[in-house]
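Saturday, quiet lab. Running sequence design on the structure tokens for the scaffold JK sent over.
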């Protein structure tokens, strides 16, 4: 690559990075309840940010999307991995064409305290994820996950109990 193309590419990368940072800040400013020490990395997209609640010390990694047609609540000390998708709307599968598009069902999503969603996790409408749950990368959460477990797969299934972490004992680790 010749020097002028390298300079142009470097400038374009800086502009894109700057725009991503400001888009993320914009969404964060639109969320009505944001706890202390929340860190959100570039690339966040939030549809209807007024329906999102973020607890204290929440971490949201790069390129995540929240489709918040209903409330999305994320508990204290929860980590959301890169490229996660949290969805609160679904279409009526008994309908066809535009009628299916126009008939959405909106169900809230709640993610508990001290949870960790690995990269690329999808959480579907109406799901509650209990406290201290770990969801493995690439999993799809289609139903409620009881507290204290490690889950993985599509749909996410119980793998084992999360070892050695109590809600009161791990809050200083983040």
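Result came back. Writing it out in full:
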């Amino acid at each position: 690559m010749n020097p002028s193309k390298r300079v142009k590419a470097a400038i374009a990368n800086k502009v894109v990075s700057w725009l991503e940072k400001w888009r993320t800040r914009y969404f964060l400013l639109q969320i009505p309840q944001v706890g202390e020490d929340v860190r959100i990395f570039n690339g966040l997209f939030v549809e209807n940010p007024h329906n999102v609640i973020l607890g204290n010390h929440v971490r949201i990694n790069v390129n995540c999307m929240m489709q918040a047609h209903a409330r999305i609540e994320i508990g204290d000390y929860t980590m959301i991995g890169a490229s996660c998708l949290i969805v609160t709307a679904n279409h009526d599968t008994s309908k066809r064409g535009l009628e299916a598009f126009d008939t959405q069902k909106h169900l809230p999503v709640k993610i508990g305290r001290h949870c960790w969603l690995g990269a690329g996790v999808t959480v579907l409408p109406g799901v509650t994820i209990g406290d201290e749950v770990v969801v493995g990368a690439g999993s799809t959460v289609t139903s409620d996950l009881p507290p204290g477990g490690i889950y993985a797969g599509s749909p996410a299934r119980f793998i084992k109990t999360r070892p050695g972490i109590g809600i009161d004992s791990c809050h200083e680790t983040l």
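Notes for JK: The chain has two helices and 19 strands. The first helix runs from residue 3 to 30. Ask whether to fix the surface positions before the next round.
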